[in-house]
Amino acid sequence: MTVEEMEHQKLFKDPNFPAHLSSIMPGLEPAWLAGSSDQVLWKRPQEISGDPCFFPKKHCDGWPKQGMLGDCWLLCCARGVFQFPHLLQQLFPGKQTMWPAASYDGQFTVRLWAHGTWYEVMVDDRLPTIHGKLCFSSCCQRDVFWLPLLEKACAKVRGSYQALAAGQIPEGWMELTGGFAVKWYLKPGHVHVNEEKENETQEYLLPRQWADRLPRLIECGWVMCCRYGNKGGLHSSLGTYHAFALVGVTWGLQGSQSGQGAVEKFNLWNPWGHSKVGENMELDRNEFEKEMDEIVVTYPYSVAGHLQSITTGASLQWQQQLVGTWKSRRTAGGNRNSYHYCLNPPALLTLPNGGEILLVLSQPLPSWHFRNQNGCSLSHPASINGHYSSGIESGNLVSHCTLTNSCNHCNCVANAYQIPHPKLEALGLHVWRDDQAFIPCERKLPAVARECVASLRNQPPILSTPRHHHTSAVYVHGHLVPGCYVVVPSTHRHHVSQCFLLQAYSDEQLEFRPWFQLGHLKESRIHSESYEDTQTACGRMSGRADSITIENGLGTSRALQVVETLQQVLTEVSF
Asked: Where do the Calpain catalytic domain residues begin and end (predicted)?
């Protein structure tokens, strides 16, 4: 298709992320552009390649390759997604019109996860180039364009490409998959936590028992790593503050009854793409421990859409999530040393049969924002299997658009993803067992909850984060016996205002709900066509966790009755 034909066809041009220098760098020219900003031309794939395609015929032709932008953290996550068709299909929903189809309109949809909800981000396919080559990420085969379009969608939700120049692997993994990743440090000197104590830094270091678990996860493609400083020597070319994907191991043959000894070498994939296609860098164990500073293990997703435990391999097929806010001087109680700790909004977790439990507390990323509230920056929440994913209703985080039964498009455009306080707070999460918390009481529930939390804060928790940590998400993971538990999310400071998402995963039946509901902690519900059909997102999920289908979900009607009762009781309660 020639340029004249494209203009005649009136291909889509995104007004909210224009083909302009402001979409690359909203401020001063960054050093990595090095005076080349006047040479940037925005071109569509058919202007860059004679035979463009979205996905390659050969899998190796689609591997990511980093450009002049420092988004290695995102490309490592993209490579992880590219290995698994079920994750890739989730990222690019439906059958999108490709080149050179007659119905091609220059518009693509990418599905990204943000704070408990899938969003479909619309982008056009105009990409920044210099001298006919892509400025930023590309695939090993330059005719493949799934990665540049994904990168553009991630840049759009942050306001510019420059906003991708630094990031964390766990944040990128959550954005692309909706999943969770654990980060451990390989050296004590890189542990940064609030009120750090020397004997507690070990909590953030890679556990020794993981030496036997890591190889299995590495060979399945679920592990990544990072290095901070340049150690010099043979591997000085690895760069600083750079991310890699661990793609395989080489086993030794000594000292093992099964003939498989300790790992001798680690195979690394470098986003810079300096090696030949299909080739990876090898580091022996000593080199790896010297050169790398951080290791990230992602929780695998099964083809059925269930999160899998990285410790036992069990399918954590029961899930529920709560959304809420900490409000300064009202529901932000700070850490356990604070007298106001009981103000934090507690949640109640019931495990009738006990089981493995993963609790994740996360906060919105400050980088998610949109420059125009009246534009099409966000489409409606992502449609999964014909139904819409759960909404976020607390605070002023997101205002969802109205959906009609006649079409799957918005009647009004969603507001910008607004973060009331862009600074990441230090997060903490504590769990206590307290069967008395579920006994009905005639007293007003907020007062009961606060008295309970106040009494529990001086007792050792069953599960807890080692310290409050400045990060986008913290977690606790363990096995719990049958019973009832109080879960308290908190920030280190007590005078903050911030939104949060609290997710619970288990291999056994669970019930997870707010202790009381005043707009500060709410159940995340699945949108359906009528109020009577609305159900809480509790139970064993069929497919993805945000699917509407719930099998054997116990406590659904009871939860709705509890919520309705609480709403009547709490109308008289104020903070």
From this structure: 11-276
Q: How many Cα atoms within 13 Å fall on the side-chain side of residue 37?
A: 17
Candidate list 72, 77, 225, 342, residue with the active-site label: 72
Two tokens, residue 555: 């406590």
Domains of the chain and any CATH numbers: 3-170 (no CATH), 181-298 (3.90.70), 314-570 (2.60.120.380)
Active site residue 72: yes
Assess contact for 378 and 371: CB atoms under 8 A: no
Evaluate whether 282 touches 265 at the Cβ level (below 8 Å).
yes
Catalytic residue among 270, 306, 477, 499: 270
Separation between Cα atoms, residue 145 and residue 402, nearest integer Å: 33
Catalytic, out of 242, 380, 477, 494: 242
Q: Verify whether residue 270 is a known catalytic residue.
A: yes
Contact predicate 419/396, CB 8 Å: no
Coil, strand or helix: which one is 476? strand
- Whether the model clears a pTM of 0.85, i.e. scores above it, the answer is no
